[in-house]
Amino acid sequence: MTGETTKRAATGAMLGLALGDALGFPTEFNDVPAILAKTGPWRTMELPVRRGRALVTDDTQMTLALARGLRTAMDRGPLAPLRLARPVRDEFVDWYHSPENNRAPGNTCMKACMLLDSDRAWQDASQIHSKGCGANMRVAPIGLVPGLSEEQRAGAAQLQSALTHGHPTALAASDLTARAVHLLAQGVDPAGLVGRLRSYAYENRSRYDERWLGDLWTRSQDPSPRHFTERGWDECLAVLERLDAVQRTADPELDPCAYTGDGWIAEEALATGLLCFLLFPEEPLTALRRAACTRGDSDSIACLTGAFAGAHLGADAWPREWVEPIEHRDELLAFGASWDAPGMSLIHLSEH
Fold first, then answer.
1. Contacts of 115 (CB under 8 A, 6+ apart)
2. Which residue from 90, 196, 237, 317 could staple onto 313, CB 3.0 to 4.6 Å apart?
3. What is the mean pLDDT of the chain?
4. Which pTM value belongs to this model?
5. How many domains does the chain have?
């Protein structure tokens, strides 16, 4: 496996997700003909820079909020549900109130964060019927931070989703997205990635983690926690099967949304972001451009594509002239450097 410290996978992924987000920001809510009329050929799309800055959306803002909450939690000891929930909740509420929160944020995130700004249990703030992509667009830090057990990584990915998006498909898609980022950072061959994710989904299909989720499932209409969780994993498995069927035959000149969905919902954002990456696994800018030139949730699809490409190829995937103007560059680089640092994986060994 490729060492995290040699390719700087965390730095690559954090930069990549922000670059994809910024590239897709102006194209969201446009269909492909409108995007091409605005940008010219998709393979030559340039990062939109105004007054020296390439602006990101709520996708990157919430990723950084999660990263800050995760850092606070792990500074206090081994990652555990209560230790994670409080600081991430606080960061999400801070984001909700921020004057910078003016980049067309998702309704689910806004409503849930408004409810989190109270003394109620987080399960009562969670939007149990929403599986929008707002949960897995921000989950990459869980896949990048070193020293977590598989149980911690899965539990943390689902818990951070559940704070806002409580639908079982949002939970499963967040778990799978963090898993994909982690596997790519560890050097897994992209050609085998979808198979690995499908196996992981089958293995976890019936597991409801009460330690991390509490009684969240009781807010749904499901008769049991197992029924609740299986409903989410089955929707993710269905879209992963579609992705597996087309990943080697899809025409890169066609809108990827035509194959795996428009990305407004969690499982489609995962699959379409992965498809854009897998079409061009060694050409990160081409993958980002393809993701940004889509009829669907372009910034979130490209954000995920950038996280996958950066985790796979590392920090050197991205040209300096793209990195220099990206909004929040210094904080993105700081998180990447801290997670890429030699020996970091030994600092937060799990304790059970």
1. 124, 125
2. 317
3. 95
4. 0.95
5. 1
